């Protein structure tokens, strides 16, 4: 996605996302993932969730946007950051958990399937994934940014191959039931 490779667009996104983070979702994750575990955040953006995660976990931030990675590194020189495409996840490293907050919504359905297959390879045995999505049906492009919306049933179908689903639940981010999170364990 080229949108987030432009610094002006990244700055617009940061302004738009002010006041939002994954704190509530991370509290849910903590019920399932032992403290001190290794976590890869896919699509860390400005790093809000990464900062929350690093208080309890050994975290690696990743993004496909070098703009986000460079901005975060300027403030956190010693941060463990890698450039990753959320579909191919080209890394030899292994993690106990892969976390994303509304990142995989930017993939087409077939790309999400490829990403989930690759995530299984990057996870340690019995590793967890925790991903959030916008709830709905269909796809759309808003100001150059692609979105895919999912229902609980669609996510259940996508995650059941290769994962033991722990929980799929709707929640409110901006409006009642506008979001869904999935927690699943690698088979």
Give your account of this protein's structure.
30% of the residues lie in helices and 30% in strands. The longest helix has 14 residues, at 109-122. It has one domain: Rossmann fold (3-Layer(aba) Sandwich). Helix 3 links the parallel strand 1 (38-41) and strand 2 (58-63). The model has no long low-confidence stretch (mean pLDDT 94). It is α/β, with parallel strands linked by helices and 187 residues long. A seven-stranded mixed sheet has the order 3-2-1-4-5-9-8. The protein has a two-stranded antiparallel sheet with strand order 6-7. The protein has helices spanning 7-16, 23-30, 48-53, 66-75, 109-122, 152-159; strands at 38-41, 58-63, 81-83, 95-101, 123-134, 139-142, 145-148, 163-171, 179-186. It is globular and about 40 Å long.
The CATH class, by name, is Alpha Beta
Task: Count all strands and give the number.
Answer: 9
- Radius of gyration, taken over Cα atoms and rounded to an integer in Å: 15 Å
Q: Which shape, going by the Cα principal axes?
A: globular
CATH topology: Rossmann fold
For this structure, what is the CATH homologous superfamily?
Vaccinia Virus protein VP39
User: What does the largest sheet look like?
Assistant: 7 strands, mixed
The structure class reads alpha/beta
Number of domains: 1
Let me know the average pLDDT.
94
Proper CATH architecture: 3-Layer(aba) Sandwich
Which stretches are poorly predicted, pLDDT < 50 over at least 5 residues? none
How helix-rich are the residues, as a percent range? 25-40%
Strand content: 25-35%
N-end to C-end Cα span: 30 Å
Tally of individual helices: 6
What string gives the helices and strands in order?
A: HHEHEHEEHEEEHEE
């Amino acid at each position: 996605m080229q949108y987030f490779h432009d610094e002006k667009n990244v700055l617009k996104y940061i302004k738009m996302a002010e006041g939002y983070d994954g704190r509530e979702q991370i509290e849910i994750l903590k019920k399932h993932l032992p403290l001190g575990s290794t976590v890869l955040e896919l699509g860390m953006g400005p790093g809000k969730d990464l900062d929350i995660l690093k208080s309890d976990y050994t975290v690696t931030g990743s993004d496909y946007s070098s703009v986000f990675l460079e901005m975060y590194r300027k403030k956190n020189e010693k941060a463990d950051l890698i450039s990753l495409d959320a579909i191919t996840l080209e890394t030899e490293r292994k993690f106990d958990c892969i976390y994303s907050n509304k990142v995989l919504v930017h993939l087409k359905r077939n790309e999400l399937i490829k990403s989930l297959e690759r995530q299984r390879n990057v996870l340690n045995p019995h590793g967890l994934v925790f991903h959030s999505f916008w709830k709905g049906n269909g796809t759309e492009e808003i100001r150059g940014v692609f979105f895919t919306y999912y229902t609980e049933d669609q996510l259940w179908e996508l995650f059941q191959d290769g994962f033991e689903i722990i929980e799929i639940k709707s929640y409110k981010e901006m409006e009642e039931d506008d979001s869904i999170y999935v927690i699943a364990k690698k088979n």
